[in-house]
Specification:
Order of helices and strands: HEEHEEEHHEHEEHEHEHHHHHH
Largest sheet: 5 strands, antiparallel
Strand content: 15-25%
Strand order of the largest sheet: 2-1-5-4-3
């Protein structure tokens, strides 16, 4: 429990109560007190208070109220008994401490619980039981957003994302490391694509506006059971990894839309190298210059349409045909044919994947 919360409570209440009062732990260490000079001291009566079977004890003109949180006495609230209202004040402060303790512990435990699920640190058989103990709904539609941001900043994106999703009982925000934050978001229905897109856009725009940082989001699939949150998280991870290779121009990448990139990502690098050597014999790929690659890109963007591609490239149709003929002569692939264009497109994706792998080695 944060000591600051207790001290804030004391600061708010001490203007109402003239008597000295404070909050200490079960060992008698004073955590918060209306008399700040006593902070960090130990109360001499703590042992007698804790040994007593009564929850409320009076010793040396002070009332001591033990605070039970989750079937355990964790804190003691004390107050100098100076008038008949003193016991009422003591009860009210104790009730506040109890409510704060329960709320704080549940919030912390819930976040920890969700973190353990997504990181695979809890046995599947224990998830349902633990969810029941923490009052977390097991059967609800949820999806994981994995948000990757730049490092080294004054304000952590966690605070900003926390302000966007204040419902602590339904939505969970977990700090994975310095760059990544996972948002486990509860949805109203399974097929809620527009809502997922809207949430992702809000996160991207808010981080960009408030912190002036660029963010990339990987989105897993929607799951309907708390046990499957880990799967959605891993899918979001895969979306970030695969998207970083094949769709690095996008800021939101959906696992369901990875397409052939997901297949290539799962292939062994030895198989990928064999494929490239088979398609481009004699290092023919290395002979293509920047102008040729740009031509190919625009040609693909225009669905192999020669007229539209030549218009966008501001070249004569015959010039484009000459370039395509030259590419065919170097690679053996006629990009005007669908099958050859498909082979070239896949080959470029395989090369991107291998370049990324070799860069990280």
């Amino acid at each position: 429990m944060s000591v600051k919360l207790f001290r804030d409570l004391v600061q708010q209440v001490k203007h109402i109560i003239n008597s000295e009062f404070g909050i200490m732990d079960e060992n008698g260490l004073i955590l918060a007190c209306s008399d700040e000079s006593k902070l960090g001291r130990t109360d001499d009566n703590v042992q007698q208070v804790m040994d007593s079977e009564e929850q409320f004890v009076i010793l040396d003109g002070k009332g001591y109220q033990k605070v039970n949180i989750n079937n355990r006495y964790e804190y003691i609230v004390y107050l100098s008994l100076e008038n008949e209202d003193s016991i009422k004040y003591l009860s009210l402060i104790s009730l506040n401490v109890k409510n704060m303790g329960i709320y704080y512990d549940e919030r912390f435990d819930r976040s920890n619980f969700i973190r353990n699920i997504i990181l695979g640190n809890i046995l599947p058989g224990d998830i349902t039981l633990r969810a029941k103990e923490l009052h977390v709904v097991s059967n609800a539609y949820r999806v994981v957003f994995l948000i990757k941001t730049e490092g080294n900043r004054d304000i952590h994106p966690y605070e900003v994302i926390l302000s966007l999703f204040p419902n602590r009982s339904r939505d969970f925000i977990i700090v994975i490391d310095e760059e990544c934050i996972a948002l486990v978001k509860e949805l109203k229905s399974e097929n809620n694509t527009k809502e997922i897109e809207r949430i992702a856009k809000i996160i991207i725009d808010t981080l960009n506006t408030e912190l002036m940082i660029k963010a990339i989001i990987g989105v897993g699939t929607v799951v309907d059971n708390i046990k499957d949150i880990g799967r959605s998280y891993k899918e979001a991870q895969t979306a970030l990894l695969v998207g970083g290779i094949f769709e690095n121009d996008k800021d939101v990448i959906y696992y369901n839309n990875l397409g052939i990139g997901r297949l290539i990502y799962q292939l062994p690098t030895t198989l990928c190298n064999l494929f490239l050597n088979e398609v481009f014999k004699g290092n023919s790929l290395e002979q293509l210059d920047g102008e040729m690659f740009h031509t190919i890109q625009v040609f693909f963007e225009n669905n192999l349409n020669v007229s539209e591609t030549s218009r966008q490239l501001y070249v004569h149709r015959n010039t484009l045909v000459y370039r395509l003929d030259k590419i065919q002569k170097l690679t053996g692939l006629d990009l005007r044919k669908f099958d050859d264009a498909l082979i070239f497109k896949v080959s470029m994706m395989v090369k991107k994947y291998l370049d990324k792998v070799n860069k990280n080695v």
